Structures are given as C-alpha cells and as structure tokens.
Known about the structure:
Elements: E1 2-10, E2 14-15, H1 17-20, E3 27-31, E4 35-41, E5 44-49, E6 53-57, H2 61-71, E7 75-76, E8 83-91, E9 97-99, E10 102-104, H3 110-150, H4 157-177, H5 191-203, H6 206-259
Parallel strand pairs: 8-10
Antiparallel strand pairs: 1-6, 1-8, 2-7, 3-4, 4-5, 5-6, 9-10
Amino acid sequence: xxxxxxxxxxxxxxxxxxxxxxxxxxxxxxxxxxxxxxxxxxxxxxxxxxxxxxxxxxxxxxxxxxxxxxxxxxxxxxxxxxxxxxxxxxxxxxxxxxxxxxxxxxxxxxxxxxxxxxxxxxxxxxxxxxxxxxxxxxxxxxxxxxxxxxxxxxxxxxxxxxxxxxxxxxxxxxxxxxxxxxxxxxxxxxxxxxxxxxxxxxxxxxxxxxxxxxxxxxxxxxxxxxxxxxxxxxxxxxxxxxxxxxxxxxxxxxxxxxxx
Length: 260
C-alpha cells in the first residue's frame, strides 16, 4: 500500500478565494464560492477554504511553508497555524476502511481524496471555533462570578455591545462554514462517497463537537441577554432618579419663589 498524509491548518479568519484563484497553478478540480480544490502536481492536492483553512495532501513541510507564503497576502488576520489536524491515507487497499488516525482507500480517486480533506478541514476549524467559544465563555464567567460576589455588573454598555457582536459573528461564521449535519451535494448520487463521508464524520466526532460549540455559544448568548437586561434596568432606574430630582428641584424653586 502507498502511504500519504492529509494535514489541514486553520491559517486565517478569511481567505480571498476569488483572487487566490488567479495565482494558484495546477489543475482546478472543484470550485464554488467558498472552496478551491486543486491537483497541483501528480499525486499532490491542495484544498483552500474561504473560512481560513488550507489542506494539503502529500506535501512536505517546505512545500507547505512555501504555499503559506503565497497565500498570506490573500488572508485576513493571518496567524501562525497552531490549529491543525492530520490523517494518514493508505491507498491500493482491498477495501475502504477507517481506523484511528488512518484511512485505507482502494484507489487515489480525487473525489475520495477531496472528501477526506474536507472532513479533516472541518475537524480543524471545529478546534478553532471551540477555542474561540471557550475564550468567550471564560470572559462571560468572569463577569458572572463578579455579579455573584458583589451583586453588581462591572461592564459598560459599549463593551457589552462589542461582546454581543463577537458572539453573533462567531455563531454566523459557524452556521455559514460548517457542513456537519448536511452532506455535500456530491454524495447524494454516489453511495461510496456518502458512506465515506458519514464514516469520517463519526471518526472525527464532528457532530458531538459541533453541538458542544453550539451549546457553549448559547450559554454565552443567554448570559449576555441577562447582562443587557441588568444594564437596561440600571439605566432605567438612573433615569427615574434624574426625573425625581428634577421634579424636586422645580418644586423647591416654586416654593422659594413664593416665599421670597
């Protein structure tokens, strides 16, 4: 059997797919508004996703580094790709079979390889979104703990709005970019691809990990709604006191004017 490796990196928040297409050489096997899949040379494949993931099949470290140098100008918020996931692919196997960190396939069919690279890429971007969600949860919990200890919320309205915006942006990005519950259109009429796709989802535990991220974001959202209600109540109470003070001042002025 021939041994290959798929490795996917979360390298940025966004990649300009439209302009990247103008500078990548190779045989473009698949494209849509959010993905580009190339055979860059014999037996090597490159998969680029709009949501910042780049996946490589049978690339060595120097080739991966060179590819990032080419792609970096087209990335928004490019960062050191600490988030990565990989899978060993053995070809010329008797049958398609998945085991821990390894998949065996009968032949090097580009559609099979693309489906494998897609699932590895979904896995790494889930790691990234999980990390972002964890940071939001930690920040939310710090305000919740202060609220429990001191009985008051220490966050301004402007900061709360930015916090809500970050949470909604992350929820929207996840909804747009992850295909955890929907199979790609290519699998609808290809039983082999559909079976491989479903087995890979189970192997990477994608659905459970997706639910964990979604539930984490829902907890953040519920807390932020509570914070917003508290701030609105605080603002309303302040306005009531201002009105009471103004009325009191007017009454005092009235009586002072009558007396003097």
